[in-house]
Amino acid sequence: MEIIILATPADVARTAADVIEQQVRLGPSVLGLATGSTPLGTYRELIERHRKYRLSFNQTQAFLLDEYVGLPTAHPQSYHSVIRADFTGSVDFRPGSVHGLNGMAGDAEAETAEYEGHIAAAGGIDVQLLGIGADGHLGFNEPMSSMSSRTRIKTLTRQTRQDNARFFTHVDDVPNHVLTQGLGTIREARHLLLLATGRAKAEAVAAAVEGPVAASCPASALQLHPHVSVLVDEAAASQLAHREYYSDTYGRKPAWQGL
Ligand code: GLP
Fold it and tell me: Per the count of CB atoms within 10 A, which of 3, 23, 85, 250 is most buried?
């Protein structure tokens, strides 16, 4: 795991966009996309690069991490709609190449199994963008999710519903249930890119990166993966015990190495 402490959220966004640009320039690629506020800067940066020098996503497929149960695809807060508004609708993904879970599926088990099949058929995910919840959730894998879990239905905690209430008129409008890639599914992506900015994420980041691997902190599953980049700003890094070591190591990283 490589922990990279950057001065500002804008630096986090630029560095994450660099990783994604490098991947999509290699040729046909599969990205795992996260929603939430954290990756917005990265998406804005990628949209700008698309406009400035035609960075293209027309050979890229994308899979969303999660979706609310009970929101039709067209609902403005369904993650289908959110990712289109925040990113994919402003660049040149081909029609049908951005995949999400159907939160209205009558049979959640069949839907989630099928989604796993689509990811596998695409060849697996090259780069998976991730945010982290204040309680350490990844995707919508709330505390006590199995480290080996697959895509499935989950019940949101009160805290997550409260945290996401800002996107809805009232907290009671936040769905109780979600479909989410499991921790085992996420761990199959070839490169995990966790982004965290702001003081509110500092405890969760420290628990995920320096705490024990424990189901009580789902993001600690990152420690089980061979290729993880954790991009944090100073505020999100503030509770890390070894932050000097991480900064020192990154400062002396050979230029050829990349992330
Ligand atoms: C949401 C999403 C996660 C996201 C997390 C943090 O509930 N399901 O994918 O990473 O919570 O969100 P934010 O980046 O807005 O803090």
Answer: 3
CA distances (Å), origin 240, targets 96, 209, 237: 41, 8, 6
- 210-250 pLDDT, tens per residue? 999 999 999 999 999 999 999 999 999 999 999 999 999 99
142 catalytic, yes or no?
yes
Of 174, 191, 114, residue with least CA distance to 150: 114
Rounded to 5 degrees, what angle do the CA atoms 202, 204, 207 make? 110
Q: Are 156 and 108 in contact (CB under 8 A)?
A: no
Q: For the segment 1-25, what is each residue's pLDDT rounded down to a tens digit?
A: 999 999 999 999 999 999 999 999 9
Burial of 59 (0-12, 13-18, 19+ CB in 10 A): middle
Q: Which CATH number fits domain 2-254: 3.40.50.1360, 3.30.420.10, 3.30.530.20, 3.90.940.20?
A: 3.40.50.1360
Please name which of 103, 84, 85 lies closest in space to residue 95, comparing C-alpha atoms. 84
The residue with tokens 């088990």 is 109
Q: Which of 37, 132, 138, 183 to mutate to test the pocket of ligand 1 (most atoms within 8 A of CB)?
A: 132
Known catalytic residue at 66: yes
